What we know:
By secondary structure, the chain is mainly β. The protein is built from six helices and 35 strands.
Amino acid sequence: MLDPHRRRLLKLAGGTLVAGGLVAVGRPIWADQRPGLAEAGQPLPALGQLPLQRFGGVASATLVASTAPARLAGLPVTTMLYHGQLPGPLIRLREGEHVRLTFRNQLEVPSNLHLHGLHTSPAADAPFTHLMPGEAHVYEFTVPNGSAGTYWYHPHLHGQIAPQLFAGLAGPLVIEGGADALPELRAAEEQVLVLKDYSVRHGQVRGHSLLDANGKQGSLLTVNGAWRPLLRAQRRTLRLRLINASTARYFRLSLGGLPLHLIATDGGFIGRPVPLSDLLLAPGERAEVLVQLPKDGTFELSDLGYQSEGGTGPAQLLMRLQVPERGPLLPLPTHLADVEQLDTQASRVQQVTLNQSFPLNFGMNGRAFDMNRVDLQARQGTVELWDLVSRSDAAHPFHLHSYPFQVLSRGGRLEPFRAWRDVVNVPSGQTVRIAVPFRDFAGTTVYHCHIAEHEDHGMMGVVQVLPQKG
Ligand code: C2O
Ligand code: CU
Ligand code: CU
């Protein structure tokens, strides 16, 4: 489905498209490569894990980004990736441990690394780091207690985020702790599912052009780099860690009509499981769900589609799930975590508008990103209320670095439960109110739209958190 902006852009570019009207053996030369039919139904690939060295309370590892050959949905491609893998290797950390992660840029282009969603200091996150080919940077931090959950990592070089992320630079990150120790969760079968769209032509992941500025969506929907794989479940209760690693595609997930019991959002566990019939994941967003498999058979994980104007469709199959023939049905946990009730009595309210106007004007509070300008200030030790206001025909997923927040209301409707998040979707014309505790660190960081193309085009702002007074 083309949204209105994109349709207009295509009209502008009509000349090129007509000139491209050549056809090679029944298939337009600009057509995307499709995986072979036999590809569907291959076993869900296990994610490679990044080897960590644990010594004296410090976990260290090296992550390398390079351009290398790989297989994507069964197709041979050469693309940008981490550790030679698509998606990047799973990084598994524990609450409380000190981490020293060396990132080495072996790409032919500048890049950097962002550990998305972690409550680490702006200095450790270092979102303005610029690493030339061959350069390395050590990301060093302590994993906060209470942050057990599902996160991910990707490049964060302004202007280059979308092409590098779309090409394949994305990987999952899991933090262990807290409710992971509950017997109900330990008995469940855990699967990390990285959801990401691609578009492949002539063995390359198709690059970005100006036409993609509004958000590029590939036609190849993958789960852990596989096309419509089969997950043969070993147990009757699944714990799915879901990550939307797309630059611009939303996923509205459904698993053959089974209830999805939400247990965690971006920033970790919620109070108790919340049953959902489907789950919307905006770009950058994560969720964990428990699924009880009631009977033998096969279920389909599908994307029901998301239209920013409201409504769903078209639906697309992502993965099939085969239920084991026997095995006990496990109970769901009743209590997961105590999610803090933030005291917002004394809070200051600031407004953050998300602006998009035709053709390619993207900004926050009416201005395009400038890394040398401070757009908002906050004070360490306070809880602020931010009203995120969409001034656009489209939906935008708002994201803030370093400081997890809670959604209080959407379009005036109170949020039904407390949850820590770092991404929240702001639909067209809506206002979403969030509460942001600025704790633990002062420093300067960014907030932005997580449609990576919008971010690259300036839909990002700078917040300076001033040190606590006296
Ligand atoms: Cu997922 Cu600014 O990042
Ligand atoms: Cu982030
Ligand atoms: Cu946006």
